[in-house]
Amino acid sequence: MKREKGITLVALVVTIVILIILAVISINAVFGENGLISSTEKGEVEYTHATVWERMEMAYSDYWAGKVANEKKDLISYLQEKEIIGTEQTSNGGYKINTVALAGAKLALGNGTDDQNDVYKLEETVEANGDKTYSVNYYGESGPRNLGVLEGDKKKDLPQTASEFKVGKYVQLPYNGTTIECVVMYDEEYNKTNKTNYGIQMIATDVVGENIGIGNDCDLTQGGTSEQMQLAVESYNSAIETLNNEAKKYVNESNNMYVTSARCVGSVPNDPYSESKDLVNLAEKATSGKWTVGDTMIKDVDSNSNIDFLQMQNMKSLGVDIFDTTSKSNYWVSSRAQKTSGAGEYYGLEYFLSRTYNPETIAGFSIYSNFYYKNFYRSNVATNKLRPIFIVNPTAIDRVQGEGTKEDPLIWTE
Q1: Which of 4, 31, 61, 124 is at 20 to 30 A from 334, Cα to Cα?
Q2: What are the residue ranges spanned by the domains of the chain?
């Protein structure tokens, strides 16, 4: 008799048991305490906590930048004004943090409607000596969790630390294994006297980096094209943005604990990207040699450089001459100007000619209007160096040593 082949009952049972074991392992890997879903949720929680803490630190730094310049508001009032925290304490104490105002968007956490469930809070502690600290905490299902502590309003420290950074003091700023020599240009006293909010700013004593070209060579009477002239317009109209962006490149991981940002000299100290909203229509300035492709509108002159220029003059009168650079190099000024000569009008970006005390106008457009040139346009490209001004991190002003002289400059300690 022929024997039939087939699966035995024992083999079937063993197979089913193995499948059950594999299913349990898979389910645990996905849904278990350390499973994929749980790990993803934990990762999102940690990311949100880190975001809230980072943004609170940024808000705290912004608060101190204003406090160093103008000691008026306390931290709570400042954050309430920015709508980052509530105007009243919650029933259980502390101020509820508005995560949308803080982060600019709704976060995965911090959206609770009551005082103790899914909320971030800022909680104040007054120490025995009167100093205040502020804890950033999260309240959720598993109870409170502290994200960090902000030092708060230590008014007694402000004069002691900020006083090191006086106008005319020399500072060595670390940069990529070397240093950039700077001189303090705006300090606490300047801001109080002038009712400004510039914080502490210092200017490099020399130019940095390679030459930066602004404009584009084009003469429409000598074979220049409308496309070439359009490139000149684009370069000229974006020049202030270009120069400030270049300055910011000198703030990186090697020094961003000491300075928060940088700008090009000649820009507005507390609004570097400010420029005239008015436009000049070059097509209306001449009757021949016009280009027919692209935009003929260029940005008008501004008064951006007035603030820095006046302060540089003030420093010179006090015996601190920072107009000239160590290398005697010309440098860009982040401001536009116009001048008239016998041949016509010039619109251009300003620059400082080494060893002089007045900004020159260059790298823009010449609209000639005399008899020989018959009203034509011409643009030129010019190259100059960059001279940055650095904004000092207000939380780092107490970590310096030195006398602040050229021979013994202020140097940051770790």
Answers
A1: 61
A2: 41-150, 164-412
